């Protein structure tokens, strides 16, 4: 069809790619409401957290994250520089210019008054600058960058820039930053409302078990733990039971019949849109969930806790065995796939040469990829030195002594009516001590079981901070003319101001001791799971590489572009238990009968008191005191007596 109006050929303009200005937090720091140290803190950034830069006010940068917006002092952030970007800058006078990004290297010169320099890049805490005739490195605090002056060259999407056209990935933790933020402030009602809105909930307790069974594992755990912190122990048990039923149903459907389903749904799972699949969860999360279910019964004064603690101990052993088997199978699968990839590639190169697509032997070698030597440890294990050190403090992710400790506490309480139970409690304390030999509370408790109880038994349990969250890291592996874009979910520590907790009564003051380092368990799990995650990554790389080769042969360079874009759309599973504590510390007290209250304090590394709460004990019998600390927030609850 035509009309009388003449038409002109419309030239389609390629998309313009303008990356957002961003920065990295050099250390954990405050984000304030206004550009002043006197302004209220709205939230905190974690070390190495990425933020968007939206403006500047004097020496303060305006930043934006999923947590919200605010102001951060400029020296706490490192501006991320892309090729071609430029900023107006100034160097502080009398500052050294180093040959390399270290103060231990040669000094090339010293800046003069009102010095200006062109920023060429950043390495850690040093900026590379061009100053006069000299190019060197200056410490970040000695360079002022005006982010409002940012200039970015226009970049057009095309074969030369296709690797930069990537999906902006948001991790599960970033999406749920408000949940953790409100939880840290003790705003549990707000957290409950947000979880209800996202996952649905029933107000009637009678409906909760059925509702929990319909929930995915992760929201059921999050809601069960929230109910526990709100001292709604019946509701907590209901949600945890729903989570446990979900695991049981999956076990029944599993071909292996194993409770442990691993950190991903089978080795054939590719690195794709994994967050749409049911959440399996790492084994240590499942064990901890059962620990808290048992503790909920204990806080309610119910001996039903005993069977749950026994189940948690058994499950931890099963998870450990299943995890070891998964690692072995993954390693074998990875080696097999590498060998198959080498053979397949050799056949394809030979076929191309026979068809006239290849020439000399050198060309054959250039076309190939040494799949056998691909190493993913640098892609998957991006932990800091401190995280690596912490992971090594535990021999595996399945040495959580919390279950044995709770089991011992229950048997010790039984021992007030049946002295024979004290020998069983002794064994349980000794097993916990084997898993955490540095906790002297456990060794002393085991010795005390040889004597008749004198005084009133009180177990004090303090859960502090948050376990590590998962962030999404993007890395390019150059296996052809364009890199394969690999995205991986990596644990990242969440800083805590609390160094330790102490409990006092009368003139007695006792520090709590570390029972379970949940962050260390998570980091160890990630390190030990390297073969399994490497197998997933390799499967994805093979798919992408051979798809590229096929498309490239059929459609020229389009195959490379399609492959790179296909890689960029994959997304790893960054889900984890957001509100899980970082550590659990304990103290076992035998109090004089006339003691009616305890004082609990948290302190920072400088011994400064962060918070203090007073706990009124029940009139009679043994009891459990549970507290949750998050920086300056501290809440504590006491059990409703016992079943004696």
Strand numbers in spatial order across the main sheet: 6-5-4-1-7
Name the average pLDDT.
80
Distance between the termini: 91 Å
Note the beta-strand portion: 15-25%
Q: Please provide the count of β strands.
A: 25
Tell me the Rg in angstroms: 29 Å
Biggest β-sheet, characterized? 5 strands, antiparallel
Could you list the spans in which at least 5 consecutive residues all have pLDDT below 50? 1-19, 155-168, 201-207, 255-273, 358-366, 555-569
The coarse silhouette is: globular
Structural class: alpha+beta
| Continuous helix count | 17
The helix content is 25-40%
Ordered list of secondary-structure elements with their pairings:
Blueprint: E1 22-25, E2 29-32, E3 41-45, E4 50-57, E5 60-65, E6 68-73, E7 77-80, E8 86-91, E9 96-98, E10 107-110, E11 118-123, E12 126-131, E13 134-139, E14 143-151, H1 172-175, H2 177-184, H3 188-199, H4 208-214, H5 217-229, H6 233-253, H7 283-299, H8 305-354, H9 361-367, H10 377-380, H11 385-391, H12 402-414, H13 421-435, H14 440-448, E15 456-464, E16 469-477, E17 484-492, E18 500-505, E19 508-511, E20 513-517, H15 518-528, H16 530-555, H17 558-568, E21 583-591, E22 597-603, E23 609-616, E24 623-630, E25 633-638
Parallel strand pairs: 15-24
Antiparallel strand pairs: 1-4, 1-7, 2-3, 4-5, 5-6, 8-14, 9-10, 11-12, 12-13, 15-21, 16-17, 18-19, 18-22, 20-21, 22-23, 24-25
